[in-house]
Amino acid sequence: MDTATLVASWPWWAAFGYIAIDLTVRIVAVIVIPRNRRPTSAMAWLLAIFFIPVFGVLLFLLIGNPKLPRARRKKQERINEYILDTASHLKFGTLRPNAPEWFPPLVTMNHAMGALPLSGDNGAHLISGYQDSLDAMAESIRDAQEHVHIEFYILQSDEATDGIFRAMEDAVSRGVPVRVLLDYWANRWKPRYRETIRRLEAMGADWHLMLPVQPLRGRIQRPDLRNHRKLLVVDGRVGYVGSQNVTDSTYNLPKNIKRGLHWVDLMVRVDGPVVASLNAVFLTDYYAETDRVPEGIDITRVETGEGDLDCQIVPSGPGFEVENNLRLFLALLYAAKDQIMIVSPYFVPDEALLLAVTGAVDRGVRVELFVSEEGDQAMVYHAQRSYYEALLRAGVRIWLYPRPYILHTKSLTIDDQTAVIGSSNMDMRSFGLNMEVSMLVRGEEFVAEMRELEDTYRTLSRELTLEEWSQQPLRSTVLDNLARLTSALQ
Q: In a designed cystine with 233, which of 46, 50, 149, 306 is the match (CB 3.0 to 4.6 A)?
């Protein structure tokens, strides 16, 4: 029996009440949902509420707000104001000369959004080996004298990460404060969560869960918001930032082990003034979770690095009023003149990003996209695939990194002197729902190192052609398009 027939069988007052409530919900939805929301996202929510009202309304009430609670956003504003005021008179290294004319306005925009300055005299070194990066971070922690700040989306104690945990234990035993932040939802249900927490407790680390959903303690926000950042700061002198979590390359998940999946990631070891900005990001999140600021940490202390790279840290996420990372990516895509290389495990662009990528090809820019041949998250994987035809027809070259590896690196390089690397995917979740951290780097030598890595990815991958893609079965196309629609529900 359909809804209309069912309602017709009710008493007149019940039918009238149902129709009045249904109409009111639809009118309110049309007024409320489009406000400060992308048109595609608003339309997806309206369709959900109009076609499946009860489920649609409940889902919207649960995950319809893409921002953190107002109190949390106010904390971010206060910290930004403090950083801007404290650092306004400081000089963070000597900047490289002859910047392209579009670069200073980009830096100004990033500074206005995230409050962190561009700094010079930085050193940066890529670490593309999965275990190599874990070992490098462990070595830096072993050298700690003042403090260790660890913030990772996923942090697990296992055989691969044992060196890091031993280094933390050693640091605590020497009286070095070790502060640890890890995302609540990303870790809470992982196989080694309890073991990891017990080990942090036993060593005496100052650890906290990020974005916990604990209604009884008054900590309530949209449950699918995540702190997706990955960073390490040691003594304010050495930092690490990139795409890799602190866990085994299988994430210790039985489904990954069964499929033989292993993650391929990229971290950057940095030194110089930019480390102070990374520390500021950590301290911001630490303050947001604890309402405390550790004593004895000077984020204005400038340490000259072992290079002359210009670097700027760009934090983003639902604690900010705008999508900082998306604006950064768009500005770079429109600035490119020769080539654009995008590496992203989850590439689900909005209209603006898709237009920027395809429009670059029309300007004569060579654009290449590196993604995984196999996906670890079905909905995102199929949503990503739904864009392949448009990208291929526009002239974007797509490289598929071979299974059973998940290419998890997140980077963007343009021309020969500018790159971005960090935790941010190029999808709507990373733009609107995840707290991310990206590092903008200007310097030919760093981009040349990135190009070598991209060449390695290209050698290991196979190119997807439009001819091959046009032979996809209908069921795959249907799944891809359905996933694309659900990706707009933000």
A: 149
CATH 3.30.870.10 given to domain 324-486: yes
Highest mean pLDDT among 63-67, 89-93, 351-355 belongs to: 351-355
Q: Is the pLDDT of residue 292 over 60?
A: yes
Q: What is the CATH number of domain 70-105+120-309?
A: 3.30.870.10
What are residue 87's phi and psi, to 5 degrees?
A: -95, 0
What is d(CA 95, CA 89) in angstroms, rounded to the nearest whole number? 16
Phi-psi region of 232 (alpha: psi -120 to 50; beta: other; left: phi over 0): beta
Is 231 strand, coil or helix? Answer: strand
Tell me the one-letter amino acid at 357. V
Residue 391 has pLDDT above 80, yes or no: yes
Residue 271 and residue 238 in contact, taking contact as beta carbons nearer than 8 Å: yes
N-terminal to C-terminal alpha carbon distance within the chain = 33
Structure-token match 């945990």, residue found: 165
- Tally of residues, the chain: 490
Q: 113: buried, middle or exposed (CB in 10 Å: 19+, 13-18, 0-12)?
A: buried
- Domain ranges, ordered by start, for the chain: 12-63, 70-105+120-309, 324-486
Comparing 5-19, 100-114, 308-322, 462-476, which segment has the lowest mean pLDDT? 5-19
In tens, the pLDDT along 442-459 reads 999 999 999 999 999 999
Does this chain's domain 70-105+120-309 share its CATH topology with 324-486? yes
Structure confidence by residue, pLDDT tens digits, 433-442:
899 999 999 9
Alpha helices in 88-190 (DSSP H): 103-114, 130-142, 162-173, 184-188
